[in-house]
């Protein structure tokens, strides 16, 4: 499907984008990346464009002559950062999501993948795709969740008015991997704990009591799931997760035993830890013939090894929370 096709990947220098670009290149695609990151983070065999997708004209330029578009560009940060700087999530997200989908429609893109999020769901033990519009996003994901929901609604509006049915929607779970945001001030739980542990923090301080359960999936597995969803294509939104719960205490244990010297763990129960349990129903994903391959143990060890070897790349990602400076 992708051989000799022109494929655009927005956010192709990031957590999911980097492995997705590699998989597309392996399939013979002519890949273009658009991102605000430093060009050194881009795959050397892909064309790199540095553009701000909050502007419609930039989106139209990026989409010109493209066969397929994977829209992955997004704002990634911790729940604490969401609470402190909600506009930094909401405004860029809703702006570039709206502009990119409109540009793809105007450009006649054959198929478009929209990356939504687990944050669109209300608190529940298991998230089912068809339940989203029955409820509201969790208070912990209110701004980012609503911004992502608007992209899903935009796709529905295009189906109704323009009969454009070529938008595939995927909702990844809690994604981790190389090329993540490792800024300890605003990163998600796995990358921030990895960085602090490998930077020698001892005792390693962790928010909550470790009992919160999350659905984690490695970025390379998400990239494979995205390709599977676009190839079919998936006619309804698809969760991309492991479907298996992992306690935060298990994550901390894996990181701790792969750190030398091994740190002591200090739990700060005065700090919030988010919703108690968040798992995805993955039956629709498996109907596409897709199964995650990377275990949480192997995945975290891989990320820790990558971090040790690639500290020079950590500071070359665009970081909206540092007033457009990298971190």
Give a topology summary.
Blueprint: E1 6-10, H1 17-26, E2 30-34, E3 47-49, H2 56-63, E4 68-71, H3 79-84, H4 86-107, E5 111-115, E6 126-127, H5 142-162, E7 167-172, E8 174-176, H6 189-198, E9 204-207, E10 213-214, E11 216-218, H7 219-231, E12 238-240, E13 246-247, H8 248-257, E14 265-268, E15 277-280, H9 283-287, H10 296-309, H11 311-314, E16 318-319, E17 325-326
Parallel strand pairs: 1-2, 1-4, 2-3, 4-5, 5-7, 6-15, 7-12, 8-11, 9-14, 10-15
Antiparallel strand pairs: 10-13, 16-17
Helix pairs in contact: 1-7, 2-4, 4-5, 6-8, 6-10
Characteristics of this structure?
single chain; 327 residues; alpha/beta; seven-stranded parallel beta sheet
Explain this structure.
There is one protein chain. It contains 11 helices and 17 strands. By secondary structure, it is α/β, with parallel strands linked by helices. It has a domain at about 5-175 and about 215-240 and about 280-295 and about 315-325: Rossmann fold. The strands form 5 sheets. The chain has a 7-stranded parallel beta sheet with strand order 3-2-1-4-5-7-12, sandwiched between helices. The protein has a 4-stranded mixed beta sheet with strand order 6-15-10-13. Helix 1 links the parallel strand 1 and strand 2 (about 30-35). The protein is globular and about 55 Å long.
């Amino acid at each position: 499907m992708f051989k000799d096709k022109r494929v655009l990947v927005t956010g192709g220098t990031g957590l999911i984008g980097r492995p997705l670009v590699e998989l597309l290149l392996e399939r013979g695609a002519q890949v273009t990346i658009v991102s605000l990151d430093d060009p050194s983070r881009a795959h050397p065999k892909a064309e790199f464009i540095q553009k701000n997708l909050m502007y419609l004209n930039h989106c139209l330029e990026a989409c010109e002559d493209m066969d397929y578009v994977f829209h992955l560009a997004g704002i990634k940060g911790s729940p604490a950062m969401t609470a402190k700087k909600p506009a930094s999530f909401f405004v860029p997200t809703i702006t570039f999501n709206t502009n990119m989908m409109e540009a793809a429609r105007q450009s006649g893109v054959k198929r478009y993948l929209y990356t939504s999020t687990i944050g669109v769901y209300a608190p529940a033990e298991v998230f089912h795709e068809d339940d989203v519009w029955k409820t509201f996003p969790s208070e912990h994901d209110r701004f980012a969740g609503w911004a992502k929901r608007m992209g899903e609604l935009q796709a529905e509006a295009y189906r109704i008015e323009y009969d454009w049915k070529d938008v595939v929607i995927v909702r990844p779970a809690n994604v981790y991997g190389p090329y993540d945001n490792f800024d300890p001030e605003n990163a998600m739980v796995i990358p921030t704990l990895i960085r602090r542990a490998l930077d020698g923090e001892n005792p390693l301080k962790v928010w909550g009591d470790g009992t919160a359960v999350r659905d984690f999936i490695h970025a390379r597995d998400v990239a494979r799931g995205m390709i599977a969803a676009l190839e079919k294509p998936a006619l309804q939104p698809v969760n991309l997760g492991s479907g298996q719960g992992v306690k935060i205490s298990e994550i901390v244990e894996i990181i701790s035993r792969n750190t030398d010297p091994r740190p002591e763990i200090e739990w700060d129960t005065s700090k919030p830890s988010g919703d108690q349990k968040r798992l995805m129903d993955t039956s629709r994903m498996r109907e596409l013939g897709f199964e995650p391959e990377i275990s949480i143990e192997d995945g975290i060890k891989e990320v820790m090894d990558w971090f040790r070897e690639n500290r020079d790349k950590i500071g070359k990602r665009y970081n909206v929370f540092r007033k457009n400076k990298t971190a």
